[in-house]
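Practice problem: predict the structure.
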Amino acid sequence: MDNVRIPTGDGDYRSLIGRLSDMYGRGGRVFTIGDIVFTTASLLLGLTPGYGAVAGIQMVTYRFLQGGLGGAMMFGNSAALITDVYPPERRGGVAQGIVGISFSAGSILGLVIGGLLATINWRWVFLYNVPIGIISIVWAYRSVYGLPAGFAKAKIDWIGASLLTVSLVLLLMGLMLSMTPYGNSSLGWGNPMVWILLGIGGALFSSLFFIESKIPEPMLRVRLFRIRQFTYGVVSSLFLFLAQGANVFVLSLLLQAIYLPLHGVPYADTPLWLVYT
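Answer:
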């Protein structure tokens, strides 16, 4: 236990995005680029033409760019930016408090504003991010883009990052396929492909811990799980985000499939119809 250190924000202990941030500007540049990607993807989502499978594939692709890339580049660097900008005595009570309140308020207001905009046109759910994003890009460029680089010699754990990405994609594909009808069932748990995807994804994810323990500079330091407080915190966060994610997922379906049609929006104009038609 004595040779295990608690993460301090250095590049050795952070994700792929965090490692890139350490190499190319201490988070400021990557944050600004992520802001640009997020705003551009929001615009593309709002302007997605047509209906049916082609439009659905476009929206999935743009949504991946918006949240999976742009959002990750911004969210993954917020704590590091606070460390670089604020002095130690103001990080916890002031900076982290503001970020925590903003995140919680945004999670609530986003659902409410999105529901109201969807009654007008679902495209505005994405388009309203554009002006906010432009203001954020200007602020980020003027405030944090020029922060100096920190760990130029840091190495990227491409093996761990690739393995984690592939395993999560396979698991999510299996779960999504399980929710589609198969045969005479309304769910797809009888589909062999569901279990193949879940099995391969689960095996790859399980092997991640063994492989990461053998890599000199891993993305995930398995030794940290020897710290009981760290393990309890990770498990608690897992259940917290599972509950929050399930809540957002159910609310989004409720708004699109039930609330909007009951309040005068034709079902054919909802995002669900756009994707599944």
